[in-house]
Amino acid sequence: MTVYFAFLLHIYQPPVQIAPVVKRIVKESYRPLIDALRENPQAKISLNINATLTEQLDDYGYTDIIESFITLASRNQIDFTGSAKFHPLLPLLPEPEVLRQIKLNHDTNKKYFGDLYNPRGFFPPEMAINDELFPALKKMNFNWVISSGIANTLPEFPTTSISQHHSTGINLLFRDDYISIDCAFDKLNNVEAFANRLKYKSQNHDYYVILAMDGETFGHHVKHSIQDFLRPLFQQLPSRHDIQLQTVSEIVDKFPNGAKQAPRASSWSTMPYDLERDVPFPLWFEPSNELHQKQHQFIMYALTTVNLLQKYYEQMNSDQKQHFDNARTFLDRGIHSCQQWWASKRPWFSPDMILRGLSEILLATVNAKKCIPSNVPSDVPQTISLILEEMLQIHKDIILSL
């Protein structure tokens, strides 16, 4: 009996992240992780890198990280996944914006990684899914999607077959939440303890386990985890037959199709008591959190403004088009999920991160107001002025509440 397991590592930094933090994470996590893979040619991971981080690595001069990912992918040690470029919570956005964010992520990463970036799988930011997300993923031709184990609705947790989405047929992969969290919180920090945990099922047939977590867990959040755990694990794997490391895509290819299901709306931070309250995304859209409600209103107002003016783009002069492009850029940067996460008070709370996100979104609307062509219907500028007034009131309310 062999347990086939995969590491799906998600690496990302908010678009408003400051350079010194990126520098520290590169030193503590990304470079040591790359070295561990390079030193062990049989080791492999599935990797989600949001394209905002790819651009940050390039902007801050860490092109060696990008080049190393290319080299490892060429050796079949990295299996890239798709995602949404600016890391928004996709179930909270309309489908056109979902599709746009996914395409932006693909095009940007394709620019840097070339033909080696051809993802079969999809990593939704924060593993946040709902049933309405799958038609968009189908349109983007993804073969599989990862979600939290809590999203599974089958009576038995899938470990010997691959479940499919009930209407789109997309393969559904569920991470083992318990083992993933124990790895992330340094409760499984040596090879034997990890191997024994993988072999938790008292069965004599092969099965699989998906482990998914922030890539920054290794070396940054848990300082010793690469040297004391990952490197020894990678070194021992060629001589072991009880556990075998694969990519998620390889596991999809190895195991047969299973039952269809409609996975639960959830994220990788959703708990059973959240589902009992019908709150699938508690760290980003908690009904009892007034900050979350105001942040969501703020984002939707800005998104409405920019999408309204998109219809008149060809009527804009060059200066107005530049303002519109600026508005779109600020909005992209502002809809990242971190500002709501830092407003969750569960237990995290950071006025700085909340205000950074709000500022980007407010700048988007201010720039949008400057790009209204003169020949649009009169109700367009009136509508945008009213929206901006509402946003300024919400902005004031949020600041006073911090």
How would you classify the helix and strand content by structural class?
alpha/beta
> Got a strand count?
10
CATH architecture heading of the largest domain = Alpha-Beta Barrel
Task: Note the gap between the termini.
Answer: 55 Å
Overall description:
The protein is an alpha/beta fold and 402 residues long. It has 2 domains: 3-276, 7-stranded beta/alpha barrel (Alpha-Beta Barrel); 290-401, no CATH class. It has 15 helices and 10 strands. Strands 1, 2, 3, 4, 5, 6, 7, 8, 9 and 10 form a 10-stranded mixed beta sheet that branches. β3, α4 (95-113) and β4 (121-122) form a beta-alpha-beta unit. The radius of gyration is 22 Å and the shape is globular.
Give the topology:
Layout: E1 3-11, H1 19-39, E2 45-49, H2 51-59, H3 63-74, E3 78-82, H4 95-113, E4 121-122, H5 134-139, E5 144-147, E6 162-165, E7 171-174, H6 177-184, H7 191-198, E8 207-214, H8 225-236, E9 243-245, H9 248-254, E10 257-261, H10 272-276, H11 290-310, H12 318-334, H13 338-341, H14 351-369, H15 379-401
Parallel strand pairs: 1-2, 1-8, 1-9, 2-3, 3-4, 4-5, 5-7, 6-10
Antiparallel strand pairs: 6-7
What key phrases describe this protein's structure?
2 domains, 402 residues, 7-stranded beta/alpha barrel, ten-stranded mixed β-sheet, 15 helices, alpha/beta, 10 strands, 48% helix
Task: Give a short summary of the structure.
By secondary structure, the chain is an alpha/beta fold. Helix content is 48%, strand content 12%. The chain has helices at residues 19-39, 51-59, 63-74, 95-113, 134-139, 177-184, 191-198, 225-236, 248-254, 272-276, 290-310, 318-334, 338-341, 351-369, 379-401; strands at 3-11, 45-49, 78-82, 121-122, 144-147, 162-165, 171-174, 207-214, 243-245, 257-261.
